[in-house]
Write a structure and sequence with these properties.
The complex is a heterodimer. By secondary structure, chain A is an all-alpha fold. Chain A is about 85% helix and about 0% strand. The chains are: A mainly alpha, B alpha/beta.
């Protein structure tokens, strides 16, 4: 096998993508914990920390672009590098949605604990699982797992429906909760978007392995 | 001058070369396939160099032949206009249909074949004692065109098509070898175009040129494919990806002969090759 340097560059870049994935996952978990605990200062810190994730994304992109320019990849190598560019974008956007949840928590301010979050923690659990599974499928080049991730998005959409039902019922029953329930709707929307981004990553895994671009699962939202 | 069939032209009852109307662009409906190559094998003496290649070359397309050194690309392209037989003890089996006529059939005039299927070589090779204009006119004179005005018109048209006219129009009497390498190669392309071929075969036409001259030739190939069918042998995969519509990958087999491994639209071959050997070659894992 030749091109050892190139192979090493691709492996290192892939590791960097996984680091970005870990940062995005931690951003979701922290944003949800701060929301649950009503910790606005923590959320403020998470909002500031999102800049580090953005910087990591640009760092990976710059390296990818240089490798594409210097190594002139073809076939699997080309698909691998192009996929990294798309996946880093999705991971950075996932972190942006986590930041969105942190901002909502800041707006909720000193709402008393314990907070009624309904199906939202379950949505977050599933979204985080989808993120982990999509990155695992990416590393293992596992098409079957990638397809299952797209199917898992349907479950997140169903939970989103339940959050809608709960929030609207509560708003109708007690109009003084409209603002608070609107924040919950925004939170669930951020989680639903995170799950959608995970399906993008899964679709990119399928492209990476097969060379075929196809939308596996059209989200309800 | 209207339609004279290709078969007649190959057999020697040629169209008058001075006729403008008979050029490839004037063909009402160009054949979809310019060449149908079927089970083609080529030998140098007892040495099998190309084994059982079958492929169709699409008309008004650029088709690239890629593969490692020694895989038979050049031998194959030289079979497309009967230049292979210039080599001592060279031999060909199989068929190459040019608009439905086998160029290896008895009675076919190889000189006519090479007029209709021209070739440009790796190293620019203008005739050293001839001027720029004489170089372009050489093929016309060989074909018996005598009218000075007709020759002048054809020289200008060919130089324009080769994107060289503006650079040499005031220096037509200067020696062809006084031009830069890139200009000399375009001069050779003009020389090939002047005799109104339908197919231009290019054997690594840019390998002796600098990057700027290379890109000019590549642009020219794209332009020329509007009027001509182009087949190019190249070692530069990025060049094949840039200029060609279809790409054929060849590889030397265990028998020591070149085999066609994969032949697909260029975009598919370079982004999702179907054969592992193609993948390994274009990603630089061997070759």
């Amino acid at each position: 096998m030749t091109r050892d340097l190139f192979t090493k560059e691709i492996t290192e870049l892939q590791d960097e993508v996984l680091v970005l994935g870990s940062m995005a996952e931690k951003a979701i978990l922290d944003a949800m914990a701060a929301l649950r605990d009503g910790d606005a200062r923590w959320s403020q810190k998470l909002i500031e920390d999102d800049q580090k994730i953005n910087a990591k994304r640009f760092e990976i992109e710059e390296k990818c672009i240089f490798v594409i320019g210097s190594q002139q990849p073809m076939a699997t190598d080309l698909r691998s590098l192009v996929s990294m560019l798309f996946i880093t974008t999705d991971l950075e956007r996932i972190a942006d949605h986590a930041e969105g949840i942190a901002r909502i928590n800041v707006m909720l301010g000193d709402e008393p604990l314990p907070r009624r979050l309904g199906y939202i923690p379950a949505m977050a659990d599933r979204a985080v699982t989808m993120l982990r599974d999509s990155l695992k499928a990416y590393i293992e080049r596992d098409i079957a797992s990638a397809r299952r991730i797209c199917e898992a998005d349907d479950e997140v959409d169903r939970l989103q429906d339940s959050v809608y039902d709960e929030c609207f019922s509560a708003m109708v029953a007690d109009p003084t909760t409209i603002q608070r329930n609107t924040y919950m709707l925004w939170t669930s929307h951020n989680l639903e978007r995170i799950a959608d981004r995970c399906t993008n990553i899964a679709e990119r895994v399928i492209y990476l392995v097969t060379g075929n671009m196809q939308e596996i699962n059209v989200s309800k939202y | 001058m209207t339609n004279i069939s290709v078969s007649n032209a190959l057999l020697g009852s040629a169209r008058a070369p001075g006729s403008q109307a008979a050029g490839p662009a004037a063909e009402a409906a160009p054949a979809r396939m310019a060449l149908n190559v079927s089970n083609l094998s080529a030998w140098y003496g007892s040495k099998l160099a190309v084994s059982g290649v079958s492929l169709d070359i699409r008309a008004n397309n650029v088709t690239a032949l890629i593969g490692p050194s020694g895989c038979g690309k050049t031998t194959l392209i030289r079979c497309f206009n009967r230049m292979h037989e210039f080599a001592p003890n060279a031999r060909v089996e199989g068929s190459v249909l040019f608009d439905g006529v086998d160029i290896y059939a008895p009675g076919i005039d190889p000189v006519r074949v090479r007029q209709r299927i021209g070739m440009v070589f790796q190293k620019p090779n203008p005739f050293p004692t001839m001027s720029i204009a004489e170089n372009v006119a050489a093929g016309l004179r060989f074909l018996g065109v005598r009218s000075r005005s007709a020759i002048a018109d054809r020289v200008e048209a060919a130089l324009r098509l080769a994107a060289l006219w503006d650079e040499v129009k005031d220096d037509l009497k200067k020696p062809g070898i006084a031009l830069s390498g890139g200009q000399q190669q375009r001069l050779c392309i003009a020389r090939a175009i002047a005799v109104e071929p339908e197919i231009i075969l290019m054997d690594e036409p840019c390998s002796a040129l600098d990057p700027v001259a290379t890109l000019k030739i590549e642009d020219l190939m794209r332009d020329l494919s509007q009027r001509y069918t182009i087949v190019i042998v190249t070692h530069n995969m990025q060049q094949a990806a840039r200029v060609s519509d279809h790409t054929a990958f060849m590889l030397m087999g265990d028998d020591g002969a070149g085999h066609l491994i994969e032949y697909r639209p260029t975009q598919d071959l370079f982004t999702r090759p179907s054969d592992k050997r193609t993948e390994d070659y274009i990603t630089g894992r061997f070759g």
